[in-house]
Design a protein that fits this description.
This protein is of the alpha+beta class. It has 3 domains: 107 residues, 2-Layer Sandwich (Alpha-Beta Plaits); 95 residues, Chitinase A, domain 3; 179 residues, Trigger factor, domain 2 (Orthogonal Bundle). It has 12 helices and 11 strands.
Amino acid sequence: MQTTVETLGALERRFNVAIPVQEIESEVEKRLTKMARSARLPGFRPGKVPMKLIVQQYGPQMRSEVITDRVQAQFNDVVRDQNLRVAGYPRIEPRAPAAGNDALEFQATFEVYPEIKLNDLASMTIEKPDASVTEADIDATLQKLQLQRATWKPVTRAAQKGDRARVDFTGAIDGVEFPGGQATDFPIGIGEGRMLPEFEAAVAGMQPGETKTFPLVFPADYHGKDVAGKSASFTLTMKALEEPELPPLDDAFAKAFGVASGKLADLRAEVDQNLKLELKRKLEALTREQALRALRAAANFAVPGALVEMEANNMLQRAAQNLIQQGVKREDIRLTPDAFREQAAERVTLGLALSNLIEKEGLAATPDQVRARVAEAASTYEQPDAVVRWHYEQPERLAEFEAAASEQNVVDWVLGKAKVVPTPRTFDELMNPGPGSN
């Protein structure tokens, strides 16, 4: 008999399931009889337990299992017969049977996957960053390597960028010192940007032994909620100041960083190669982000709430696990799925659009694309061929590379449809973005 499926909303569906009581009882009896052949109860040999005791001990549980199996079987039959694509899990609820109806009745409510619709991507603009590695970028990286091997010597002049200071300070709000506003022998790298701008500005120009009082306004989004947005007064004393002495950039320096030839030119070439690889990955990531953002904006369909709920709970579990690994006690975690539901909806929407395009446009990763990604990842190891072989020993080890390659195919497809505007950027802008940068 054809079952009528009701449409409750854009994606929500419902139909009724009826199971004859006689069918349930017959199956329960069959299963209990089979169980009795090997059942064990204290005081009886295996297979010799009286059927009455079997029914008392296992009857209710067996009946529940039979009902669950029958309802699930009927649900699956209807879904298959009517070619429904169920999203998430159905909600099965009992219904009051009609008078004279010798059957158990249930109501199955569920969601189906949406029809994926995308707006025209041709009207969308994607900014594609474009940059290259220059000699100045290589020089800057070598200077950072020099700083790693620098020695520090005391100086008595005014503090300047690149120096390292040791200070004592005390902060007060409305004349009252506040928790966390005091420190002794506190190290500050001038120009590193780890302190608030007003604090660094106050330190710059000071000399060892000098004391200064200066105002500071904490940002409204400051991590210390008790002082965020408030005005404070700090008294600062510089106790010591050091400047770096950098080792010379020569062959000995290159050898100290493990360059086999011991030549500075080869260290420079190695730095150049590494920076180009970093830049390539950064450009790909930024372009991918822009393309997927455009795809999400073009996505025009309802999202199954069941999938959103599942994703929100998965995100909650991952966040809780990260907090536990950082030392937070499980009982102190106060997160709820509500905190992740909006982001979960975005992820589900994008995931559905990606899956649809991969299937519809034939954008699944090819074996060559997967192998190229595995080889690139393996190239950073001492024995890349062995790493490649390891990944191919078990197919599941390739899943991450297959997903990344398929996603890249979608990105390329989107870039081919949208209006792409090359945006010149420098290496430093991309690798060291300031506040508010994309």
